[in-house]
Amino acid sequence: MSQYPTYLLDRAKLPDAHTFAVATKHGAYEALRKVLKEGITPAQIIQVVKDSGLRGRGGAGFPTGMKWGFMPDPAKDTRPRYLALNADESEPGTCKDRVLMEMDPHGFLEGCLVAAYAIRAQAIYIYVRGEYRAPYNRVAAAVEDARKAGLVGKKILGSDFSCEVWMHKGAGAYICGEETGLMESLEGKRGHPRPKPPFPAMFGLWGQPTTVNNVETVFNAPFIVLRGAEWFKSMGTKTSTGNLLVGVSGHVNRPGVYELPFGVTCREILDDVCGGMWKHKKLKGFLPGGSSTGVLPASFIDTPMEHDAIKATGSMLGTAAMIVMDEDTCMVRAHEIIARFYEHESCGQCSQCREGTQWLHQIFHRIEIGQGKREDIDMLVTLSRGMAPGKTICALSDAAAIPTLAAVAHYRGEFEDHVAKGCCPFLPAGVKRPSFAGAH
Amino acid sequence: MTKITINGRVVEADPKKPLIQACHENGADVPMYCYHPGLTPVGSCRICQVEVQQGTAPGRVVVACRTPVVEGMVVDTESPKAHEVRRECLEFLLKNHPLDCPICDKAGECDLQDYAFAEGQGEGRSNEPRRKLDKRKSLGDVIVLDEERCILCSRCVRFMEEIPKTPQLAVADLGSRSVIATFMDRPLSGNYQGNLADVCPVGALTLKQFRFQARVWNLKKTLSTCGECSRGCAITVEVLRGKDVKRFRPRYEPAVNQWWMCDTGRFSSERHNAIERVVPAARRVEDLLRICSVDEALAQAAETLLAHSGAVCLASPFMTVEEGKAFGALCKSLGATPAFVSPPPSGLQDSLLNTGDPCPNRRGLAELGFEAVSVADARARIAGASVSVLAGERVIELCDRAMLATMTATRIVTFDTHALEGAAAMVCVGIPEQVEKIGHWVNVDGHVGKLSMARPVPLGIEPLTRTLASLTSLLATSGASSR
Q: Which residue from A161, A275, B75, B108 lies 20 to 30 Å from B129 (Cα-Cα)?
């Protein structure tokens, strides 16, 4: 189907790849063995990851090698160090980590161990979204299998490297996917994000140096260690290297998670990879990276799927979870649903976010049911500007404000139609929107 | 100390404290809700935004309560950008606030009200229905919670965790559905609950005792000292229209009580609203105590004291240092040893403030050479003497009013707010209350606490220092003439 080289999902596509036997037969733990047998130092791993240009796949796109390099020098700072794995994949639209954990848990575990070795972490905490039962069970089973094979625990493969793996189930809160919220949750507290600084590398889990990485990010690490930075850079673009998992959902013929190099255009993803729009309808717009990235109208479909190009359109790559909407989609309704999500998931610490997410939802709802006023549309903009950027402890407030600003910027006419007609123009006459049932 | 620039002025700031503290110490009024100087800053209300410039980087708007002080930083608390962010933040805070200021006890001293005036836009833009929550949720005997007014600053949660170290409050639920709650709706316990009403920046946590009692702008606030234990917490005495003491509130005093006080002290304000006082004095005429002027009472007291030798002199532990000196002089002229009644420990001692010793001026009186006498001893001394002088607030009560009333074989002269009943009472001179006098107490650590006049003394009553001195001089002059 795709003419691009692949590596992330190669093993995952094999039958029973989640079992230890199949996974090891197809190369799982080779990178870890190489690191431990050949005595590759943590600094060397960090360097090769830096050279490879690997960027975090959790949404922000921060260079991974640099993040690992923030961990204090173990010679000067003898505190215990931790690696926390953010597998709390809860962004609407995003479903890539689930595939990795469910289909190739050993590949994921190897990635965790290589990352832990690089930052000299003595324990790995894998924080799995509560709803992800199957991925949790697969990873938990993989950890047990690996432990039996001497790949987890004390003196891994007879080397000096010891690393314990702990699994943790979330309880269904989006905010616990924010790295400091995740740490609070792991510590057994409310998932309230912490103000930064101090950053996790200095003051993380239980106040110790901690690195928090996304599942897909560490999944890349063993491949880079085995095949080198140059190989990795041969894929993708100059500033966004390697392949990434693109999760496509919405009004397409073949939604799913696809492995593609950075830089493939959104049109290619939509038409070639996903088989085009469903029911021969026209594209209206798409969210390039999950619900917290701004919507882009159809005219942006030729944008390459990579950090800088998407940023230039005013949106964000996020987790590359493309949500495609056809011409019959009501953008007000779509954003009402997004706003409802953020209202429900705001932790309630910061004033702007707690009140603002509710307010945005209320306004979207009013416009959608035809009770909006003209000034409400400007209010969406001014309120969103009051919530972002960087005005709150974490980025949830931004995540609610950014799609709102984009929706009004690109689809103002549709909002005005709702106000002028006093109803949603996408609904047949006489039909009313059903009111919300509970969240979740 | 670190040198920083605040609003164009170079100042020295403590690098261990957050930037907001440096701003407040240097006259820049940065608004705050979640920040309290006595609690861990969390930076969640986002109102304390100021513009900070470091090095060559362009100015950034940051929350002052979570920003460390760094050498050379240039802070502008009044920049248009900072004002704009604060205005926006207030708009969000007021989105669901009920704006029931006309019936809110906090109105007039409410941070939300104050900063909304200072920064806010004056007019709300929200037409949405406001949150409907419990407006009078009892959190025990002391505190009522109004969930609608709450801005979720979590000061109360942190107070309970960090100061009395008895975590009892928490934020329940998420996002815009958050409310302050106790576990399973259990009532709050402990002797420090009253502080919750003080730390609450809005009218969400109010005192049951003070609820709907007064508008705070009608209260005259006077700096004073609490007398419920030997800690002597710095307080303000708040009096409504020169009459009733409506509340005691702690006042920041780093050497004694920081920002806090215990409920025992706080609610002792009620005591000062008693109406059965002796005004201005009474003396025994034939078999009855009759109201008379202070001069008449003192003359009769002098007569009684001169007629009988071996007077016992007992002071109240509430006596100020100044009154103690006057009482010491009286004792000397009567040839008695100065002593004060020392009641047993109150049993309220805790590791925070309350010392459990109900004698606020024990140390001050001890330094004046007063002997501490137990209640039983005091009674025995009174019973065994032909005449006694009891002076100071609550001295009759401490020696057991009912017991004294049954005495017949002795004569007692009292200087107390209340009169003494019974056959032994010869003269009762009215004295000012603790909130009606100027003086000093020395607390358990030697810190001097000041008492100020929070309300006028009832007509005719003279300060205890003066009445004691008058009696001393009367004794000297009439004693000399009779000799």
A: B108
Cβ-defined contact of A393 to B44 (cutoff 8 Å): yes
User: pLDDT category, B276, cuts 50, 70, 90?
Assistant: confident
Chain A to chain B, count of Cβ pairs less than 8 Å apart? 87
CB contact under 8 A, B92 and A386: yes
CATH number of the domain where residue A384 is located: 1.20.1440.230
Shared domain for A200 and A294, answered yes or no, is no
pLDDT for B121? 77
Q: Are residues A354 and A304 in the same domain?
A: no
A249 and A379 assigned to the same domain: no
> So what's the pLDDT on residue A149?
95
In a domain, A238, yes or no: no
Please check whether residues A77 and A151 belong to one and the same domain. yes
Contacts of A438 in chain B (CB under 8 A): none
Domain count, chain A: 3
Domains of chain B with CATH codes: 2-93 (3.10.20.740), 129-212 (3.30.70.20), 281-482 (3.40.50.740)
Q: Is residue A9 part of a domain?
A: no
Of A326, A357, A375, which residue is a domain's last?
A326
Mean pLDDT of A356-375: 94
List residues of chain A with CB under 8 Å from any CB of chain B.
173, 175, 190, 195, 343-359, 362-363, 379, 385-387, 391-393
- Are residues A122 and A222 located together in one domain of the fold? yes
The pLDDT score that the predictor gives to residue A2 is 59
A79 plus A210 within the same structural domain? yes
The answer to whether residue A253 sits within a structural domain is yes
Tell me, letter by letter, the H, E, C secondary structure of chain A: CCCCCCCCCCCCCCCCCCCHHHHHHCCCCHHHHHHHHHCCCHHHHHHHHHHHCCECCCCCCCEHHHHHHCCCCCCCCCCCCEEEEEECCCCCCCCHHHHHHHHCHHHHHHHHHHHHHHCCCCEEEEEECCCCHHHHHHHHHHHHHHHHCCCCECCHHHCCCCEEEEEEECCCCHHHHCHHHHHHHHCCCCCCCCCCCCCCCCCCHHHCCEEEEEHHHHHHHHHHHHHHHHHHHCCECCCCECEEEEEEEECECCCEEEEEECCCEHHHHHHHHCCCEHHHCCEEEEECCCCCCCCEEHHHCCCECCHHHHHHCCCCCCCCEEEEEECCCCHHHHHHHHHHHHHHHCCCCCHHHHHHHHHHHHHHHHHHCCCCCHHHHHHHHHHHHHHCCCCCCCCHHHHHHHHHHHHHHHHHHHHHHHHHHCCCCCCCCCCCCCCCCCCC
pTM flag (> 0.90) = yes
Q: In chain A, what residues touch B128 (CB-CB under 8 Å)?
A: 359, 362-363
Q: Same domain, yes or no, for A137 and A87?
A: yes
Whether A157 maps to a domain, the answer reads yes
Residue-range definition of the domain harbouring residue A393: 331-421
Which residues of chain A are within 8 Å of residue B171 when distances are taken between CB atoms?
Answer: 190, 348
8 Å CB contact of A195 and B66: yes
Chain B positions in Cβ-Cβ contact with residue A345 (cut-off 8 Å): 174-175
Selected residue with higher pLDDT from A74 and B122: A74
Any chain A CB within 8 A of the CB of B70? no
Confidence class for position B223, pLDDT limits 50, 70, 90:
very high
ipTM of this complex prediction, to 2 decimal places: 0.91
* Average pLDDT value for residue range B127-156: 95
**Looking at CA atoms only, how far is residue B350 from chain A in angstroms?**
29
Q: Does one domain contain both A209 and A144?
A: yes
State how far residue B70 is from chain A, nearest Cα, in angstroms. Answer: 14
> What is the predicted pLDDT for the residue at B123?
83
Task: Identify the band that residue A434 occupies on the pLDDT scale cut at 50, 70 and 90.
Answer: low
* Domain boundary residue, one of A215, A233, A251: A233
Instruction: Mark yes or no for CB contact B176/A357 under 8 Å.
Output: yes
